[in-house]
């Protein structure tokens, strides 16, 4: 049988495979709330400007609200023959309220309808994720506050470089996430224009009020070009690219948690709530959640690339290719939602091992830079010379298998006769940390202040 919504000029129905490849109801039913919201706004506007009667608009409103309840309660039967969420809902509306339902699609096309629904959905997704990012930032800032003075080794090249504090390290991710949130908010501001009323591609001959529908749906304004409005998907791509950077940041933290949990490190432990066992090795405690978060970037960047390739070279205006826009966005949103929630859970759960972290903070001559700086300050040597002398002292300590602080004054003076007792004041982890007072540095006072600043900004809950 021909499609009841557009089958007027068709004698026969679609081949099974035509129906299969064409139907999007399997995934776009997730747009039902947005679709109903858009239709409610459209019907109200049609009545307001006199295109339909207010009786019809009321019948439509009641009908759509009843359909929303059917879907919410799982009583709605989705049909693949009706292709997508838009026609499923519209067909049901006509079934329920008759003639009035058939007037809803006046001055509208599925092209502007789906563009509107999808923007609304993406906007909701951004709001949800943005709140989750804030919540993760809060967890990190609170843990950073607690560990403002906990020493740990800072790495470059994953080699021990200089002592830092665990709080400083955690606040690094707060900074990254703040930028991620900013990017999501930027994307939101740019997508917040309403395509509804652009119709199929050229606009409409009906005297519609696009300002009214835009306002009703919480958009800042209507889109300015009907062709652009129905064919643009860069709002979705911009959203996905923001998710890519977010996922990349989460993957770095996830990787660090995996490293910190490993036996050679043991900087942190996760409770039973955030570890899993092995089916063969009874002793194992694996940080699976961190590993999965580390991996999610794979699908999120794949999702971005999928949509980018769908849109590449697509001639104006709408083509069915654009129907392929939704699954990548749904998939990436789900991956990001899970990742953020699991990461927050782990951050709140993890227990640091300050003694271990401090021991490694002191290892590998991590205060060598402090020694070089002291030679500059106390002996007025040029930094390059101080660097060279410190290198010789490190080499001496390495040969004697001791720490820098364990070299005797006489041994040091063999390398540089001017060195005096004062040098021992800068060779401990604590003195190193306390000295890093430059703006943005890791001195515990700085870190405590920054952590508190973030806690104040982010608020309680
Ligand atoms: N399901 C379609 C989509 O997601 C709706 C728009 C269909 N428009 C059309 N002219 N066939 O893109």
Automatic annotation (TrEMBL):
InterPro entries named among the record's database cross-references: Arg_succ_lyase_C, Argininosuccinate_lyase, Fumarase/histidase_N, Fumarate_lyase_CS, Fumarate_lyase_fam, Fumarate_lyase_N, L-Aspartase-like
Pathway where this protein functions: Amino-acid biosynthesis; L-arginine biosynthesis; L-arginine from L-ornithine and carbamoyl phosphate: step 3/3
Signal peptide: none
Keyword Transferase: no
Domain Fumarate lyase N-terminal: 14-302
Enzyme class, UniProt record, top EC level: lyase
Stretches assigned to the Argininosuccinate lyase C-terminal domain: 365-434
Catalysed reaction, written as an equation: 2-(N(omega)-L-arginino)succinate = fumarate + L-arginine
Keyword Amino-acid biosynthesis: yes
A GO MF label: lyase activity
Keyword entries, A-Z: Amino-acid biosynthesis, Arginine biosynthesis, Cytoplasm, Lyase
EC number assigned by the record: 4.3.2.1
Subcellular location: Cytoplasm
Protein name, entry field: Argininosuccinate lyase
């Amino acid at each position: 049988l021909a499609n009841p919504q557009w089958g007027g000029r068709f004698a026969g129905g679609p081949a099974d495979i035509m129906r299969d490849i064409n139907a999007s109801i399997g995934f776009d039913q997730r747009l039902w709330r947005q679709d109903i919201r858009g239709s409610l706004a459209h019907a109200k506007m049609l009545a307001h400007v006199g295109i339909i009667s207010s009786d019809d608009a009321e019948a439509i409103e009641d009908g759509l609200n009843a359909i929303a309840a059917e879907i919410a309660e799982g009583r709605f039967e989705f049909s693949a023959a009706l292709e997508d969420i838009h026609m499923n809902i519209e067909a049901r509306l006509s079934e329920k309220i008759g003639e009035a339902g058939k007037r809803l699609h006046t001055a509208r096309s599925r092209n502007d309808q789906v563009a509107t629904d999808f923007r609304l959905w993406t906007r909701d997704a951004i709001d949800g994720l943005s709140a989750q990012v804030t919540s993760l930032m809060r967890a990190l800032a609170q843990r950073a506050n607690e560990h403002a003075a906990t020493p740990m080794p800072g790495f470059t090249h994953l080699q021990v470089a200089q002592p830092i504090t665990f709080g400083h390290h955690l606040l690094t991710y707060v900074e990254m996430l703040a930028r991620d949130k900013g990017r999501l908010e930027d994307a939101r501001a740019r997508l917040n224009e309403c395509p509804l009323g652009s119709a199929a591609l050229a606009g409409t001959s009906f005297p519609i009020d696009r300002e009214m529908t835009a306002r009703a749906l919480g958009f800042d304004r209507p889109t300015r070009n009907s062709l652009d409005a129905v064919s643009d998907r860069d709002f979705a791509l911009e959203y996905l690219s923001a998710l890519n950077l977010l996922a990349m940041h989460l993957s770095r933290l996830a990787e660090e948690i995996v490293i910190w949990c490993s036996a050679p490190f043991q900087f942190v432990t996760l409770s039973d709530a955030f570890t899993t066992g092995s089916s063969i090795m009874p002793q194992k405690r694996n940080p699976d959640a961190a590993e999965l978060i580390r991996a999610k970037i794979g699908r999120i960047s794949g999702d971005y690339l999928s949509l980018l390739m769908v849109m590449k070279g697509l001639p104006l205006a709408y083509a069915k290719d654009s129907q392929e826009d939704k699954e990548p966005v749904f998939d990436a949103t789900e991956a990001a939602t899970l990742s953020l929630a699991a990461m927050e859970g782990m951050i709140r759960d993890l227990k640091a091992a300050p003694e271990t972290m401090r021991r490694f903070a002191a290892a590998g001559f991590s205060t060598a830079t402090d020694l070089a700086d002291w030679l500059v300050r106390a002996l007025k040597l040029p930094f390059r010379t101080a660097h060279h002398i410190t290198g010789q002292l490190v080499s001496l300590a390495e040969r004697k298998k001791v720490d820098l602080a364990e070299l005797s004054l006489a041994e040091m003076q063999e390398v540089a006769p001017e060195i005096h007792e004062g040098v021992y004041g800068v060779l401990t982890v604590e003195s190193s940390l306390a000295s890093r007072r430059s703006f943005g540095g890791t001195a515990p006072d700085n870190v405590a202040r920054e952590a508190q600043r973030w806690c104040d900004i982010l608020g309680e809950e």
